[in-house]
Amino acid sequence: MSNPSASGKNSTIQVPEKSQTIAFQVESRSAPVPWSTGLCDCCEDVPNCCITWLCPCITFGRIAEIVDGGSSSCAASGAVYTLISILTGCGCLYSCFYRSKLRQQYRLGEKPCGDCLVHWCCEPCALCQEYRELKSRGFDMTIGWQGNVKQQTPGVMAVTAPMAEGGMSL
Q1: Domain annotation covers residue 162
Q2: Structure confidence by residue, pLDDT tens digits, 135-156
Q3: Residue 105: exposed, middle, or buried by beta-carbon count in 10 A (0-12, 13-18, 19+)?
Q4: 148: which of 19, 24, 93, 139 is 20 to 30 A away, CA to CA?
């Protein structure tokens, strides 16, 4: 009765009694999830706000370690961020990719604008928002990936970090 197109997004239905074709849109992905806090809500976590404004490499390193699932360390990511910032003055070009990764992992909306533009215009605010987002999803940002894994399952080494409410899906 239905005739899906090759892309799987548009379908047509033949209505036999009226001999009409009705086209409709099928949404293949769920709607983006809103961020837990706004971009300019930096003062919701004053200690992190201060650290980010004074030394953004620390906040970036913590974010990168969690987003990468422990495959990169906080220190290594922070050092790369610092090196790029010193050599080019554009650490935001590196950190915006982690915002994209974070958004993809948690299906977050690209708000208020594109990831690179958010980082370009207000790097500290973007880093603070990402940090707060991971914190709101159950991560203790001060203990790194391995610490979160151990904290999730005391006494047993697990292979996953804390799950967000509703779980993660692709």
Answers
A1: no
A2: 999 999 999 999 999 888 765 5
A3: middle
A4: 93
- For residue 10, the 8-state DSSP code is E
Question: What pTM value is reported for the model?
Answer: 0.71
Same-domain check for residues 89 and 22: no
Maximum CA extent, the chain: 71
Q: Which domain holds residue 139?
A: 42-143
Cβ-proximal residues to 28 (8 Å cutoff; 6+ apart), any chain: 8, 9
- The count of C-alpha atoms lying within 13 angstroms of the C-alpha of 118, restricted to the half-sphere facing its C-beta, is 23
Torsion of CA 26, 30, 34, 36, to 10 degrees: 170
Residues 41 and 115: their CA atoms lie apart, in Å, by 17
Q: Are 60 and 134 members of one domain?
A: yes
What is the pLDDT confidence band of residue 10, given thresholds at 50, 70 and 90?
Answer: very low
